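note to self: the first set is below, dont mix up w the second
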Amino acid sequence: MARSFGAWLAVLVVLVASTTLGGCYLGPSPVQYAALAVVDGRATAFVASCRRSSVHLSLYSDEDSAGGPLHLWSVTVAVPDGAESVEVELLGAPRPGWEITSKENVGGGSDAPRVVPLTSLEPGRHYTLDSSESGPEGTSAPFIRFTTDVLSKIRAGEVLVPLEKKRVKSVPRQTFIDDRCH
């Protein structure tokens, strides 16, 4: 009995270590990660799907005032079988496998903000790209906060990833995927 308990404990330690040390949590409530890229001149989320079947993204304006409407665009994207990453054009028209999940909400409860669709990125405004789905014990993916002026600084084959709450850094796309999924 003691030997089987020790084996079970060793397996548990390996599982916990692999999920906390690895870049992607593959449990029932996954954390997913997105970076910001520019593809064909368009702002694009580059999402480390880590072989998940779908990913969810939200893009919203950080400058919405308290009590005012929340300008939001959100989408759920079906990921092709076995793909480690997926590109999602921000504010893009729906494509096969995409479900635009942001809907205009006129009313709502007293605590719920009024939601209006975000339809364009305007110079000088601050935006947040959120790819987070809560994971175990409240873990979540970091947000990417940006303005449109940063888009011209992203080089081909690179993505912006969050460093801290308000700072980002540029890394090669493959490095981003390797860090998140392997």
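second set (the one i keep forgetting abt)
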Amino acid sequence: MSCNESWFENLKIDESKPSKVILGDNNTQEVHGSGVVSIQSKDGQKKLIHNVLHIPALKKNLLSIAQMMEQNYRLEFDNGECLIKDKKNRGAIVAQGELTKDRLFKLVLSPKSTQALTVKVEDESSLWHKRLGHLNYDSIILLRRKEMVTGLPLVGKKSDICEGCVLGKQHREVFEDIQWRAKAPL
């Protein structure tokens, strides 16, 4: 059970029949939905916990031992420590926690957020200028007009100065007269 809606990868809210959960102190809380929570294991892999209840009124997240066992996780309790291991991944440690003074095991789980990042190039003229080996813009326009390159978009002349072109056009200074010259290797 979790109170953090942001932890859910997909949350199904069922408003047709609201259900309630009775907690250890006989207090009842309303379930707003259920879904999949994605966490990051100790080795950095993404692990999924299915059928997690979303209860916004909870103050702490609660983990069901039986539910974890049903989802192919093995739990070990020894010397005031709890280890959650993945049976499918040769017993890799997913999470671990220590026994607190109120006789609960506090697990520190880091939710794995899924992100998709995209990059968009604003100026395709300079991109194609670089792709074609710093070819001048007149030649790129000619290539486009004569359809000599497939997928070449319509590019225009750029007034910006290309740093690579400037550095490539610099000439080298001649070496000054050297005072001595080697007569043999090394």
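remember for set 2: Helices lie at 65-70, 124-131, 137-145, 163-168.
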